[in-house]
Amino acid sequence: MSAFKTIALIGRYNSAEVATALATMGDYLRKQGRDVLVEKETAQNSRITRFPVADYDEIGARADLAVVQGGDGSMLNAARHLAAHRVPLVGVNQGRLGFMTDIASANMIDAMAEILAGRHAIEERTMLAAEVRRDGAVTLATLALNDAVVNKGAVGRLIEFLVHIDGEFVYDLRADGLIVATPTGSTAYALSSDGPILQPSVPGFALVPICPHTLSNRPIMVSDRTVIDITLKRSIEARLHFDGQMQCDLQEGDRVVVRRAEHTVKFVHPPGYSYYGKAALERDPLPRRRRAPAPRHSGFCHRRSARARVPAGFHRAHGRDRRRKIHPDRRAVARAR
After folding, report:
1. What CA–CA distance (Å, rounded) separates 29 from 41?
2. Domain residues for 255?
3. Residues 144, 210: Cα–Cα separation, whole Å
4. Can you tell me the distance from the alpha carbon of 258 to that of 261, in angstroms, rounded to the nearest whole number?
5. pTM of the predicted structure, to 2 decimals
6. Could you give the CA distance from residue 71 to residue 264 in angstroms, rounded to a whole number?
7. C-alpha span between 43 and 57 (Å, rounded)
8. What residues act catalytically?
9. 96 assigned to some structural domain
10. 202 burial class (0-12, 13-18, 19+ CB within 10 angstroms)?
């Protein structure tokens, strides 16, 4: 018998497709003898009424597994709510790429059958704990699975900030911002900012400047046991985001302190899961196709096309003979013959 006896369903909001998938999954789990809970806001938005409704605290107390049907954003949101409760998550992709949602919606019943039969793997992912300190007081404290991002606001001006790691000065950085990414988040915003890809089990964080003003400010990787302190030195407008969600506006002098969270999040993977296959898809989401060869005489700078646009008589008028270059004396001899 599977250890997953009570299973919670969490879905992306305001999606008729997800509502249908949630109902299908719930009916299947009930037939397998499982107790099913539906997250409160999910139930309200999907209008599913045949299963008990629970908020995240109740899910944390009662559920053995949470099935998240949506995209990576839905997984991130569920992870932040349930990490402290140690409830494992499995994702059914109802979004686009679905880097954290392993199961394709078309195969969700077969994959869930494998998981309920005990054929699965459980992986723990590191999370970030971050807080904002202003005038010595903590004004915000939260968790993030992907990243914490300090960046410029709506005004298109660089911001300047100081970065210390374990109290040691590292950067005086002028840039659009800075990303502190977990290994999970290394394939998200950090990757598009030229950051490194970290295998999930790597015990480290990536610090990735966003459009730095100087070439010497490059991404670095630090131990996940360090404390990262970002002090806003100068800005017209700056903001703080966690997992793509805006959290607060920052003022000059504010400190953002980031460290490894006390809790991790557990992902349940079905048979056949491959992180490296997902990472390759993230780097190149479209299948590679052979490009058709360019037309032989096409292109703005092609030699023959360029000559065709030169007016007749241009070369003679400008003293440039297009014929093969022959010494003048030899040309005269050839005419005489």
Report:
1. 20
2. 128-260
3. 19
4. 9
5. 0.79
6. 20
7. 15
8. 72
9. yes
10. middle
Q: What is the pLDDT of residue 149?
A: 97
304 within a domain of the structure (yes/no): no
The CATH number covering residue 94 comes to 3.40.50.10330
Distance of alpha carbon 19 from alpha carbon 309, whole angstroms: 62
| Neighbour tally for 168: CB within 10 Å | 9
CA 147 to chain centre: 9
Q: What is the rounded distance in angstroms from the CA atom of residue 151 to the CA atom of residue 180?
A: 11
Write out the two tokens for 301.
């700078």
Q: How confident is the model at residue 18 (pLDDT cuts 50, 70, 90)?
A: confident
Report residue 59's pLDDT band, with 50, 70 and 90 as the boundaries. very high
Q: Is residue 228 part of a domain?
A: yes
Pick the residue with more confidence: 331 or 167?
A: 167
Mean pLDDT of the 229-238 span: 92
Report the run of H or E that residue 114 belongs to, with start and end. helix 108-116
Two structure tokens written together for 220 = 């670095």
The pLDDT assigned to 325 comes to 52
Burial 86-96 (b: 16+ CB within 10 A, else e): ebbbbbbbbbe
Same domain, 136 and 56: no
- DSSP one-letter string for 207-228: EEEES-SSTT---EEEETTS-E
In which residue are the tokens 């949101």 written? 77
Residue among 47, 72, 45, 54 nearest 9 (CA): 54
- 173: its two tokens: 């950085």
| Rg of the chain (C-alpha set) | 29
State mean pLDDT over 213-218. Answer: 84
The total number of structural domains that make up the chain: 2
Note whether 97 and 22 are same-domain residues: yes
Distance CA 134, CA 208 (A): 24
